[in-house]
Amino acid sequence: ERIERTATMSEVPPTRMNQQIFKVKKKAAEGGYKLLKKKADALKVKFRDYAKAIAETKANMSSDAASAFFSLTQAEYAAGNFKNKVAEGPMTARIRVGAGVDNVAGVKIPVFTLYETGATADNQSLGLVGGGKKIQNVRDKFTNFIEMLIKLASLQTSFVTLDEALKVTNRRVNALENVTIPKIQAVLDYISRELDELEREDFTRLKLVQGKKESEIEEELKRKEAEKKVALKSGKSVGKENSADITAQFDAQDDEDVVF
Fold it and tell me: What is the pLDDT of residue 195?
C-alpha cells in the first residue's frame, strides 16, 4: 500500500492547481461516502424488516399448511377420494401471480402479488352427494395457503436481492472510507509538504538575494565614502597652492593704456 501511494503521489505534480483539484475530489468522495452510508443504513433497516416478516410468515405457514392438509383429509373422509375427478376436469386458473418492482433507496426489488382472474371455480358438482362443505373449506384453506406461499416467495426474493445490494453498498462505503479518501488525503498532504518546501526555498533564496544586495549597497557606500575622503584630502592641498594672490605677480604700469 505504501509503494502504491508513493507511485500515485509521484505522478501528481505538486502545484496549486492540483491541490485545488484534489480538494474538490476529496469533497466529492466525502459527499458520496455520506450518501452511500445513508443508503446502507436505509437498506439495513429494510433488510431487518424483511427478515422479521419472513420469520413471522414461516411461523404462520406451518399452522396454515397443517390446517389445509388436515381439511383435505376431512374432505376425503366425507366425500371420498375426489382427486381423480379434479384432475380429469378442466383446469382454469382462478389465481395468478403478478410481478412488480419496489424501489428501496435506489435499489429495485422484485415483488410478487396475487390477483384473481375472475374465472369460476371448476368442478362445482363435487360434493353434491356429500362433503360439499368440507370441499369448499379445502378450497378456502388452500387459497389462503397459496397467498402465504406467494407472500413468502416475494419476501425471500426481495431479501436475497436486498442482501446483494447491501453487500455492494457496504463494499463501496468501505472502499471510500479506507482506500479512496485516504489516498486523496495522502496526495493532498504530499502536495502541501512540497509546496511548503518550495515556499521555504523561495524564502531562503530571497533572503540570500536581499543579503547580497544589502552587502553590495554597503560596499558601494563604503566606496563612495572613501572617494569622498580622498576628494576632501585633495581639495585641501589645492586650496593651499591657490592661497597666494596671483594678481600680485603682475604690475599694472607695464600695460599700455587702451584707447577706445
Answer: 86
Amino acid at 110: P
In this model, does residue 129 exceed pLDDT 70? no
Burial of 8 from C-beta contacts in 10 A (0-12 / 13-18 / 19+): middle
9-13, 35-39, 43-47: least confident range? 9-13
DSSP 50-99: HHHHHHHHHHHHHHHHHHHHHHHHHHHHHH---HHHHHHS----SEEEEE
C-alpha span between 248 and 133 (Å, rounded): 168
pTM: 0.60
Measured between alpha carbons, how far is 2 from 6 in angstroms, rounded to an integer?
6
Cα–Cα distances (Å) from 96 to 86, 109, 120, 146, in that order, read 19, 20, 14, 10
The backbone torsions φ and ψ at residue 95, rounded to the nearest 5 degrees and listed phi first, read: -130, 130
Does residue 238 have a pLDDT over 50?
A: no
